[in-house]
Amino acid sequence: MQTASQNIKNNCCFFSKTCTNNKRAAAIHVSNLLRNSTLPLLGAHMSVEGGLHKAFERITLVKGESLQIFSKNQRQWEVPPLRDSEIKQFKKAWEQWGQKHVAVHDSYLINLANSDAQKSNRAVGAFAEEINRAGLLTIPYLIMHPGSHVGAGIEQGLKQLTKNLDRAFEKAAEATAVMVLLETTAGQGTVLGSRFEELAYIISHSKYSDRLGVCYDTCHTFAAGYDISTKKGYSKTFSDFESIIGLDRLKFFHLNDSKKELGSRVDRHDHIGKGKIGLTGFRQLLNDPRFVAHPMVLETPKEKDLKEDIENLKLLRSLATKNKS
Ligand SMILES: [Zn+2]
Ligand SMILES: [Zn+2]
After folding, report:
1. 190 is in which domain, residue-wise?
2. Residue 53 annotated to the active site
3. What is the pLDDT of residues 68-116, one digit of tens each?
4. CA 249, CA 213: separation in Å to the nearest integer?
């Protein structure tokens, strides 16, 4: 049995590196450790159709405790700036929902690893805009796909990505509270970020290392060859993560089962327990005391009534063992 204060003592170290410059994330983390539950904060990615604040209605409907959104149309380069009224409405809806984690996912169009100067410049501008928007909305985390080297090779791609990431941080100089989380990828084609070593390279070479963390996608990493479906594989995966990147960098999870096999390098999300990871894998993650107050969001297929999210969240909660709180 762990008390709330023990929880903070044992787990806050994962956030300590960034506690100082990401006070909002740290405050939310502490408040979540105090909520007297040892279950991670389960939630989902929600649509912002009808306005950014609408995402909170949707997450409330599925009883989610963490949320991910796009802060703009993810398939368009140009978007109008955020209006004051929009920001106000968003903050109000967030407050009503509670002291819970929200993250933004960046646009799918942005590839910071591209060596082409023109494409690079456009990506840097768009990514700086993503950081700024998250800053205006007071969202602590911006989750990004590390991008694709498009034939230049992994090393060159990582160098380019790190350089462009730093340029974007410089450009978005006012939004200093936003932390960027590099998402683990399946490694399809020339996509970067499928090996922990690649993420560690970016983190250690960036001038803004203290503002970088990792978002762990269960489907992507499984497709990349990290097997969390077995006890042995799970333990090896997170001990590798700890020694290569450090668990204090791990801030957020995407919970998706994988339609494709271990090491397939193909990114196809499946409903929890329906794919190749299976319930054993998710049970281990949900009962891992290291992730007791971490936000974990679903990115699984769903219809407008969000029935699938409700079912997936119910299933995930049922996997938590009863005797650990
Ligand atoms: Zn993801
Ligand atoms: Zn994916």
Report:
1. 4-324
2. no
3. 999 988 888 888 999 999 999 999 999 999 989 999 999 999 999 999 9
4. 5
The verdict on whether 220 is a catalytic residue reads yes
Q: Kindly give the pairing relationship between strand 41-45 and strand 269-270.
A: unpaired
Separation between Cα atoms, residue 160 and residue 165, nearest integer Å: 8
> Global pTM?
0.92
- 183 is a catalytic site residue: yes
pLDDT in tens, 202-215: 999 999 999 999 99
The alpha carbon of 3 and the centre of ligand 1 are apart by a number of angstroms equal to 32
Instruction: Report the residue count for the chain.
Output: 325
Question: Which residue, among 119, 224, 112, 218, has the nearest Cα to 168 in the 3D structure?
Answer: 112
For residue 221, which of 179, 180, 263 has the smallest C-alpha distance?
263
What's the structural domain count of the chain?
1
Candidates 45, 58, 105, 271; catalytic one: 105
Tell me if 75 sits within 8 A of 109, measured CB to CB: yes
DSSP states along 267-323:
--EE-TTTSSSHHHHHHHHHT-GGGTT-EEEE-----TT-HHHHHHHHHHHHTS-GG
What are the angstrom distances between the C-alpha of 287 and each of 26, 159, 324?
Answer: 22, 37, 8
Compute, in angstroms, the gap from residue 1 CA to the centroid of ligand 1. 32
Q: Phi-psi category of 128—alpha, beta or left, where left has phi over 0 and alpha has psi -120 to 50?
A: alpha
Both tokens of 92, joined, read 């109000």
Domain of residue 104, CATH code: 3.20.20.150
Least distant ligand from the CA of 184: 1
Nearest ligand to the C-alpha atom of residue 68:
1
